[in-house]
């Protein structure tokens, strides 16, 4: 995989199932602190090989009192790096190190006033009273093994704790959410002051490192990319093009199910402005023919997915010597695939080219797999991709066919295109 670790240091986040885990990562990255998320089941080897400057234990819905509740590998506390426990993560710090966690007398959910009780690098340059966001049913009742209380709320006398010698810290509240307005400063203090994480993670440094990583992976090989004209595949293609130039072959399939201007924008931005090696395939007759009379949404998706793979496969096979397939996989997809809950149940099939690598025996190039969506847009701006493409209104892979209630007809597609255009113009004007 073409994944460059930006520098030898990062903050590692262990996921215990909190709905806010990805927010922790986003807040740190907004502070130019590179971080990655691993499931709480991560082994010592996985943690050690990450070479973290510090470790964050996320919140989670479980209780430390439940038999079999999640625990991190003991190496987390033997690694010699700072640890920040958030909510459930703080309760783990307490319960695993001689303290006592009990069910809270009053479950705390919502805003609370935190009183900072003593000096701590965690609260450096922060006021003595902070608005914070609580969401917990358990709480610490007793501390041991070097911990002291550094913050409290009316309902949580142990709202923030610290063991300065070991550099272990815990907060019962959620600094990563917007309802804790100064929470980002607390996370910055942990990363910069406590972990001494000095490196600045930026789009320019990412661009440079990813181009080098792609060149190392691909060598003199050729890469094929299925372009949808959306943000992810377009930014991935532009990035790979910087690394391998004309050895990237982009295929844009016009399914006949696109919005007004989608194909033209792709040809202008990707073909003319970015000078990508772009081939546009008009397969609208094939798609519309196979969809004729089909009303069931799931059947439509499967027809579209199968037809797309068929067309792309045929075009790709005409290219000689292609060894790699580019995909615009993003970090949330990677996190979900190894999350504490496991992959989500299938609500609907997902239209992409996921069936292609095995079928075509191609190696994957996924240069965006460690990025969130907003970071992909920032990277696109760094590369000079047109704003109208980066800011395009999201559009499902199966296109307008999924928005047609019933069988797809040319007349209904025209009506939908007109309605979609009006809606997008109104959104831009508002």
Explain the overall architecture.
- The protein has helices at 21-30, 44-50, 88-95, 183-194, 203-218, 231-244, 262-273, 284-291, 297-317, 331-337, 356-360, 373-382, 387-390, 410-429, and strands at residues 10-15, 35-39, 52-57, 83-86, 100-116, 129-142, 148-152, 160-163, 168-171, 222-227, 248-254, 278-282, 322-326, 363-365.
- The two termini are 42 Å apart.
- The strands form two sheets. It has a nine-stranded mixed β-sheet with strand order 2-1-3-4-9-8-7-5-6, with helices on both faces. The chain has a five-stranded parallel β-sheet with strand order 12-11-10-13-14, with helices on both faces.
- Helices cover 36% and strands 21% of the residues.
- Strand 10 (222-227), helix 6 and strand 11 form a beta-alpha-beta unit.
- The chain has 430 residues and is an alpha/beta fold.
- It has two domains: 10-194, Rossmann fold, CATH 3.40.50.880; 203-429, Rossmann fold (3-Layer(aba) Sandwich), CATH 3.40.50.
- The model is unreliable at 1-8 and 341-354 (pLDDT under 50).
- Helix 5 (203-218) crosses helix 6, helix 5 packs across helix 12 (373-382) and helix 6 (231-244) packs across helix 12.
- 40% of the residues are buried.
């Amino acid at each position: 995989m073409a994944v460059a670790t930006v520098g030898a240091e990062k903050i590692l986040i262990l996921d215990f199932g909190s709905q806010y885990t990805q927010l922790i990562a986003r807040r740190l990255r907004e502070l130019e602190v590179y971080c990655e998320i691993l499931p709480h089941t991560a082994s010592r080897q996985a943690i050690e090989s990450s070479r973290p400057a510090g470790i964050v234990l996320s919140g989670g819905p479980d209780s430390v009192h439940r038999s079999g509740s999640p625990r991190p590998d003991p190496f987390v506390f033997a690694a010699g790096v700072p640890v920040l426990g958030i909510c459930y993560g703080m309760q783990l710090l307490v319960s695993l190190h001689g303290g006592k966690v009990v069910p809270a007398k009053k479950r705390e959910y919502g805003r609370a006033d935190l009183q900072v009780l003593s000096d701590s690098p965690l609260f450096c340059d922060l006021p003595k009273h902070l608005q914070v966001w609580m969401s917990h049913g358990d709480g610490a009742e007793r501390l041991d093994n070097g911990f002291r209380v550094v913050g409290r709320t009316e309902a949580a006398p142990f709202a923030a704790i610290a063991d300065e010698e070991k550099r272990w810290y815990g907060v019962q509240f959620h600094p990563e959410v917007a309802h804790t307005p100064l929470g980002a400063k607390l996370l910055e203090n942990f990363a910069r002051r406590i972990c001494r994480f000095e490196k600045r993670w930026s789009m320019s440094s990412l661009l440079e490192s990813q181009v080098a990583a792609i060149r190392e992976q691909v060598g003199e090989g050729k890469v094929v990319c299925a372009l949808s004209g959306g943000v992810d595949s377009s930014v991935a293609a532009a990035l790979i093009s910087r690394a391998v130039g004309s050895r990237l072959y982009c295929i844009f399939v016009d399914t006949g199910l696109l919005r007004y201007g989608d194909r033209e924008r792709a040809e202008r931005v990707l073909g003319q402005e970015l000078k990508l090696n772009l081939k546009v395939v008009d397969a609208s007759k094939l798609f519309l023919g196979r969809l004729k009379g089909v009303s069931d949404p799931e059947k439509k998706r499967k027809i579209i997915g199968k037809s797309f793979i068929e067309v792309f496969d045929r075009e790709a096979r005409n290219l000689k010597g292609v060894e790699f397939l580019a995909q615009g996989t993003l970090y949330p997809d990677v996190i979900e695939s190894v999350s504490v809950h496991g992959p989500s149940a299938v609500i609907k099939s997902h239209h992409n080219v996921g069936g292609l690598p095995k079928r075509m025996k191609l190696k994957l190039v996924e240069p965006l797999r460690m990025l969130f969506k907003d970071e992909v847009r920032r990277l696109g701006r760094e590369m000079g991709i047109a704003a109208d493409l980066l800011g395009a209104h999201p559009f499902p892979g199966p296109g307008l066919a999924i928005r047609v209630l019933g069988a797809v007809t040319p007349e209904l597609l025209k009506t939908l295109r007109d309605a979609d255009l009006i809606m997008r113009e109104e959104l831009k004007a508002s």
